[in-house]
Amino acid sequence: MYDIVVIGAGPGGLSAAARCAELDVSHVLLESSPKIANTIQKYQKGKHVMAEPGILPLRSPVDFAAGKREEILDAWETGIAHHNVNVQYGAEAKSITGEVGNFSIGLVNGDVVQAKHIILGIGMQGNPRQLGVPGDQSDFIQYQLDDPDEYHDENIAVIGAGDAAIENAIALAKHNNVYIVNRKDEFARAKEGNLNLILAAIDAEEIGAFYSSSPTEIEILEGEKFRGNLVLSTNSGTEKLPVHRVIGRLGAIPPRGLVESFGIEFPSKDMSAIPALTSQYESNVTGIYVIGALGGYPLIKQAMNQGYEVVEYILGHDVKPADHGLIEDKFKALPYDNMEVDDVLIMMQERIPIFSSVNALLFRELILDSTVHVYNEGDVVFERDDYTNSFYTVLEGGIKTVITEDLIISSAVGAFTGEGSLLSGRRRSATVLAGDQCILIETPRRTMLKLIASIESVKRVLDETFIVRQIQTKFAPNTDIKELEPIASTAVINSYTPGQVIMKEGDEGDTFHLIRSGSVTVSNEVDGKEIIRTYLPAGADIGEMALLGDTARSATIKATVKTETVSIDKDAFEMLLARSPGLREELQEKTKKRYQENVKLHGDDGSEGLLSFLMNQGLGEATSALMIDESLCVGCDLCEQACAATHEGTSRLNRKAGPTHANIHVPTSCRHCESPHCMKDCPPNAIQRMGGGGEVVIGDNCIGCGNCKQNCPYGVIEMAYQTKATTSFWQWMLFGIGLAPGKGEVLTHGAENEIKKAVKCDLCIEQNHGPACVRACPTGAAMRLNPVDFAKLA
Amino acid sequence: MSTSFVSHQGGRYFWISLAFMVLSIIIYAWHEPVQPPNGGTWYGYTLGTIGAVMILWLLYLGKRKRNFANGWGTTKGWVSAHVYLGSSLIVIATLHTGFQFGWNIHTVAYLLMCLVIFSGFFGVYAYMVFPDARNKVKKSRTRDDIFEEIQVVDQQLKKLAGNLSEDIGAIVNSAIDRTEFGGGFLDQLLGRDKSKVMIDGIIVNNNNQDVVIENLVQKLTLATGQETKVLANLVKEYGGRQKLLGVIRTDIRLSAIQEIWLSFHVPISFGLIAALAAHIVSVFIYW
Ligand SMILES: Cc1cc2nc3c(=O)[nH]c(=O)nc-3n(C[C@H](O)[C@H](O)[C@H](O)COP(=O)(O)OP(=O)(O)OC[C@H]3O[C@@H](n4cnc5c(N)ncnc54)[C@H](O)[C@@H]3O)c2cc1C
Ligand code: HEM
Ligand code: HEM
Ligand code: SF4
Ligand code: SF4
């Protein structure tokens, strides 16, 4: 029986186990892979690992500082050896039973480990899906490929059809005899580039392919040329493939299911939810503690600090978390000199109802990410049409929301604002001014989204508020919020997947929808063909004709991207009409206009193909997309040169790449999505939305993990070394010295801290006069458009 | 939605340029110099100076279009102004000369200027017509897309040929290997096809792949059994290849025409500067 069993030898687990060893606590560190820190082992070779956040001090018995992956892993190996940490490799935990003081941990290899306390630090990467057939535990079966050049002249079977499988198969095929085993009859999940590569390689017979085949057994051959036979069940019967090596690339199993099976609860179904933890990292199962990425802290240093702290907490020591100083600094400007940091945090949660149900640990993290502002009366917090999207809560004093010149709403301590842009990704719909003695907490969008995903009550409060405020600004600006609440309470929030029909032409319907986030297309069926009439962004309303008596839908409305609407039915709407004089007339006017537009659009169908094409390219979620009119493009490449010249020599757009419809070409370049996919999973939160145009910008604190590159569905992010831009024009022009305009060269090549960072278009936010690509185009072929302007393209 | 440099800002520079030309003609008609009109009168001096300044400004486009961080106007706007104000030089400079042409350095400068301007006219025509034409020829694909398609067909052809007799395989392979594109500028401009093929050990011209296709068709007519089917397929695929090659060749030729004027426009501009300098110097010396 160990006092503490640490599961997962990532940075968090390592640090915890080392602290146990340092304090002579009986412990064991269980790691499923054959080496420590599997997540870091999987980084590319020589990767420069960053130690973000820079201001956070490290508190761990093992060293960690920014440096090469290999150096860091070495330091950790040395650290755990030096402290005599008790590690077991190949020890994958699969079950936990018992209770605090007497847990039993079941391992995949059949062993059982007893523990009084458990620290869970298994990260978010998940374990590779196993083949699950007899013989799959043999040592020539592997689920990872570090260096394809390590193997020569072997018969290797790669099992899987995703990008990882294809990339491995192609890399191995250089020196080996490679087979790829695909359960399906085509490679449907692979990226286009990989798909072309694998099909070409199969065609050229460089790689053998088994389609519609799955392994049923691995027969082990002793003392023969081959190490085993991979038995496959194929459409034409059973086949035996003699192999030296089998590589399974069947994806990873996300850890959530496993963690839940340990009895740990997640507060919501949302896949990005984080288990509820106390401020001492303890889960709802007494005695099981969760640290690191799994606990919602996505950076190495944080995980290591928590490893140290959690051991202290288990032992009953009262230590202040390492980030204590950081929070103290944040609170310096506040008038709470005589209060302890922890008390200020408690007061904040008491004063602000929306945060009251947040658990202490999560709230602490929220404050770490947030900024606390002290305002003078009349200061502008944000302005109408700003493209910011952070969330504000009132800690002291009050705020004034200016909806129209005559309509100013005051809110007091505990209120919040900014939820509109937070939820819709759109511009601010009102100006907010600071009241007297005003102190506000500004929380970034990413942190709020995480909170919404994790805590049902936060989501509910925000949703309800969003609905009433939306109804108020849209229809009843002069009606008190209180009066609108009964109407709002009947409203429903609906979510649609891309392409899903919200209402269908000809159907009867009496609900009315406000688009809350995402966007839709309006189309009609003409001669059995879908003709897209127009595109409507978040904020628009649809189906209002139904409310005025015309219940047959006049068009089909489809979500272009993931879309949410707020729907109100006819009865509730009648109440609204009764309450807001003039609203009926206003809506009738609007409806008339829409009819007229429809009639006009019936006349010119030229744009239909184009609009469908653009929507199919996912451009419905763009806010600023680069397009090139091929009938004007002379191919001079000034756009790319301009981009490179204004961005340290690396162009962030690829003019030639991308699809074309008729004369409209969509080059590969960031579209500044409404709800940017790239922002989802950036450990240091380096991607921000800023500026007057809502530019999505990657900051200098990028750690180069490549998550954003993977998450962007449009392939616009490159991982690149920093480069240096153009030298003097005249030197180049007259004497041919230096680089041509728009050419760059790698700046720090060979330098110690060289790291590939994420780069992409930032809409030239630093230039102050708009995107250089468009400005540099001599003929007017290049343009940047918002989907609202697409209809005018044709 | 996309407005070209020609219609930039509703043709603003067209109207400015037109007004400028009309005004200078009116003044020309109205002013009565002591001497017959020429560059030496006060009005001649004025127009000459304006002209010279304009030429320097027109030349500056070559620099301006590479000032990528410059916020002063867009390149499109500059090109629009360049085109329309540049055209007005014909009137300005002609009025400046007072129609006094002769075999001298002055007239050389004038003629060079006209060449630059007329090449510019062609440039505008080229920019308005060829990109669209090329996009249509390529059916909205990039040249690289088409090269990729050709590569796929090539693979397919080699595979098919592998099932046939060795000499057919040799012909197909050599035709693929000896397919040529581009060449010198003149070749591109004239759309010359220097592709070759080796048949029976002799390398012959294979313009537009005609020779290979003819040869394969010939073989097809003589073929029997299974071979007929494969050969027919081969001929069909080769027809597709021929079409794709044709598209690329047309694109290369059109793009050569689209670019060619700039190789006159810019160098002659520099010649013009030299001649103009000589003109001005000579005027001051011999005055
Ligand atoms: C490409 C990339 C680059 C990054 N770059 C940086 C950077 O430069 N700086 C930075 O601070 N952060 C970086 N991060 C984030 C960082 O890797 C994580 O925050 C950190 O690894 C989290 O540590 P952890 O201890 O919580 O979990 P992990 O490091 O994921 O470790 C979990 C360990 O648990 C093991 N395990 C899993 N399941 C079981 C089980 N059932 N039984 C036993 N063991 C199990 C795993 O094999 C693994 O070794 C990067 C992430 C990625 C993907
Ligand atoms: C600073 C600018 C200029 C000055 C000071 C200038 C001056 C003069 C003068 C003084 C003359 C009269 C010469 C004579 O009568 O023998 C002249 C004539 C002429 N100039 Fe210019 N000029 C200028 C620019 C230009 C430009 C831009 C052009 C055209 C490219 C041009 C083309 C001519 C021609 C063709 C003549 C007539 C030659 C002749 O009379 O035989 N000049 N110029
Ligand atoms: C004496 C007069 C002119 C001079 C000195 C001049 C000079 C130049 C120069 C230096 C360039 C830049 C080329 C490059 O760097 O690639 C250019 C481009 C161009 N010029 Fe002129 N030009 C003149 C008149 C005209 C006129 C009258 C027209 C059209 C009616 C014209 C049309 C153009 C066009 C279309 C371009 C290409 C712009 C681009 O691709 O960026 N020019 N000219
Ligand atoms: S990088 Fe990709 S996901 Fe992010 S805003 Fe740009 S296009 Fe959208
Ligand atoms: S910007 Fe991209 S690469 Fe950089 S840290 Fe964020 S997710 Fe990783």
3D architecture notes:
The complex is a heterodimer of chains A (794) and B (287). With 794 residues, chain A is of the alpha+beta class. In chain A, 28% of the residues lie in helices and 24% in strands. Chain A is built from 23 helices and 45 strands. In chain A, the strands form 13 sheets. In chain A, strands 1, 2, 5, 6, 7, 8 and 19 form a seven-stranded mixed β-sheet that branches. The termini of chain A are far apart. Chain B is an all-alpha fold and 287 residues long. In chain B, 73% of the residues lie in helices and 3% in strands. Chain B is built from eleven helices and two strands, in the order ααααααααββααα. In chain B, strands 1-2 form a two-stranded antiparallel sheet. In chain B, helix 1 packs parallel to helix 4, helix 4 packs antiparallel against helix 5 and helix 6 runs antiparallel to helix 7. One protoporphyrin IX containing FE binds next to helix 2, helix 3, helix 4, helix 5 and helix 11 of chain B.
